[in-house]
DNA polymerase III subunit delta (Exiguobacterium indicum), 333 residues
Amino acid sequence: MKTPWLVNGKLANLYLLYGTERHLLEEWEREIVKAALPDGERFDYMKIDLNDQPLDAVLDEAETVPFLSDYRVVVAKPATFLTGAKDKKQHNLERLADYILQPADYAVVVLIVEAEKLDERKTVVKRLKERATVLEAKKPTTEELFRFVLDAVNDKGYRMERPAIERLIFLTAEMWGTLAHELEKLMLFAGDRPTIEIEDVDLLVPRTLEDNVFQLTDYLMKRQLEPAIRLIRDLEKQGQEVLALLGLMARQYRMMLLSKRLAEQGYGERQIASKVGAHPYAIKLALQSAKRFTFAQLEQALIAITTTDEGMKTGRGDKKILFDALIVRLATL
């Protein structure tokens, strides 16, 4: 496991953890606390909610000598005062700015805020960036998620092939926390079985709306009308609006058309994904589906979808009737 919270192999006295990936923020917090208090000693651990308590309480705790451990660990969040957002409480930022210059060597203070950006204009932010260990939990790349899954299953003695990992990443919408949760569930389900299969992923991991539309489009391109209608009815029972489904279908057919054109020009899946602005796995599925249709058929499908969309928005008929008519039309192209 990577240890970005260690500085030259040692704990820092002051941390700032920020970013949009909650799972990563929580993991870093756990690992820092575990490294500082390896025996799990709770007398020297304090967690402070900055919505309820002032920053002074954090610094008072940080300046308290540890009782039974080498470090006094103080975790404080949300440190909203480090961003441009309005804070619920007034905090003594001058005292924090002074503390940053000379933190207690027996304390490990961890400030956490779930935010994309910090307010770089603030003196306290500038000092933290200069003096503290600052870690940003940003949205991971597909390769980082792939490596995360591979390392996690290997650590537990399991195997997982690339198609299964790609499927898992796609179904969890590249969200680190959701991915970690679903992966844990898959490993529990596998039990003594050494390999986690793609069938396990499809069985256990909830489908996203986008994936359901992929499935719907696949049924239509295979001219499988009955399962397509069943899937639509299931989605309607879940509260999905036909206009939303129509929009995603239009996106899917456009992706297939554009991907097919770029593939014929010699572009690879990753290059196409970059140009189209889609997940590589989505492009892989789009190219597989597009092989069944000619350019003319894909263009006809898009014209039919656009016509239906206009009909719905101008009130030329009942939305569900128009949508069902479109489904029949697409299944017979």
